[in-house]
C-alpha cells in the first residue's frame, strides 16, 4: 500500500460552507492529509473562528467571505483563493440552506432562493474553478448532496429538487470533464450533528432520537466521520472513481 | 466479527447492475442480489457494529477481463475505454484507497452503501 495516494501536500481545496459544521470537518480532514484549505462562508465571525481552529491544528488556511448564490461573488472568491495559494485542485460544494416549507404555500421567491443557494451555487463554483483545475492538470469536485434524494420529505420539495439536480449535475460533469482529468462525485450525508441539525444539547432537533433509533450504526454522524471519505475523494486514491453518488448515512436511508 | 467487537464486510459487485447486458442476465441477477443483500445485512447487523457495503467496479484489468496483452478482449476494452470519462480501464491498485477506507474506522458511519468505482463508465456507455 502506497500511502502517497492519500497525500494532499501542495494541493489547494475550496470548501464552501467551510466555516462551520460538516464543511469545517471536511476542511480539517483535508488539512490532516496536507491540503491548503480555503473556507468559504457568509458569516465573517464564523469564518474567522474556523480559520483560527484550522491554524491551531497546523493547517494552512484562508477564510474567504462569499455569497455562493452570486456569480460576481463566486468569481471573486475563486480568484482570491487562486491568487493566495497559486492554484486550485479540489472543490467541495458543501454550502446549503435548509428549512421546511409546504409546497402549496411556498412562494416563487422562496423556491428560487433555495435553487439559487443549493444548486446554482455549485454551477457557479464549478465553472469558476474549471480553468484553474485544467491549468493544474486535473481536479477533484465533490458535491455534498443529501439523502433526501433517496427518500421523500413532504416539506422539503424545494431542497430535494436542488439536491437531486446536484446529483445529476455530478454525473454529467463527470462525463463532460473526465477528459480534463477532473473527477466529480457526490457525497450524500444523512443525519450529522451540525448547527443546521443539532443532535445534542439544548437545541437538539426533535427528529434525532427517532432517526438514531432507526439507524443501523445506532449513531448520528459527526463532522469528523467525514475525514476519510473526504480525503479519499480529494486524493489520487480515487482516480478511478467519477460520477459516483456515495451515500454516507450510517444506513438510515435503508431503514426509515 | 462479533467476538472481535465488530466487523467490515465489503461485497464486490459489478457496475453491471447499473446497466442492462443481454447476455449477462445470470451474472447481473447474482450481482444485483448481492447489492440488495448488502443493504439488508447492513440493517440487520448494524447493532453488532458490523458495517456492510458494496463496491461496484467497472472494467478492471484482471485475468477474468484482460485489458491488454495477447488475451486482451479487444473490441469491448477499446469501446469502453473510449467512452469512459477517465479514458482508461482500471487497474487492481485503483482499489487500494477505497478498500482501505471501507475496512477502517474511517468508514464507521458508512454502511449499506453501494459505491460505484468505474471511472464513470456506466454514465457514458
Q: Layout of helices and strands, plus pairs?
A:
The complex is a heterodimer of chains A (256) and B (125).
Chain A: E1 12-16, H1 21-32, E2 36-41, H2 44-56, E3 61-65, H3 71-85, E4 90-93, H4 108-136, E5 139-144, H5 157-177, E6 182-189, H6 208-214, H7 227-234, E7 245-248
Parallel strand pairs in A: 1-2, 1-4, 2-3, 4-5, 5-6, 6-7
Chain B: E1 7-12, H1 25-45, E2 50-57, H2 74-83, H3 96-103, E3 114-117, H4 121-124
Parallel strand pairs in B: 1-2, 2-3
Word description of this protein:
- The complex is a heterodimer of chains A (256) and B (125).
- Chain A has a single domain (3-254), classed as 3-Layer(aba) Sandwich (Rossmann fold), CATH 3.40.50.
- Chain A has seven helices and seven strands; from the N terminus they run βαβαβαβαβαβααβ.
- Chain A has helices at residues 21-32, 44-56, 71-85, 108-136, 157-177, 208-214, 227-234, and strands spanning 12-16, 36-41, 61-65, 90-93, 139-144, 182-189, 245-248.
- In chain A, strands 3-2-1-4-5-6-7 form a seven-stranded parallel beta sheet, sandwiched between helices.
- In chain A, helix 4 (108-136) runs parallel beside helix 5.
- The longest helix of chain A has 29 residues, at 108-136.
- The radius of gyration of chain A is 17 Å and the shape is globular.
- Chain B is 34% helix and 14% strand.
- Chain B has helices at 25-45, 74-83, 96-103, 121-124; strands at residues 7-12, 50-57, 114-117.
- Chain B has a three-stranded parallel beta sheet with strand order 1-2-3, with helices on both faces.
- The longest helix of chain B has 21 residues, at 25-45.
- Classes of the chains: A alpha/beta (256), B alpha/beta (125).
Would you identify the CATH H-level superfamily of chain B? Answer: NAD(P)-binding Rossmann-like Domain
The two chains with the largest interface, and their residue counts, are: A-B, 47 and 44 residues
Tally of individual domains of chain B: 1
Number of domains of chain A: 1
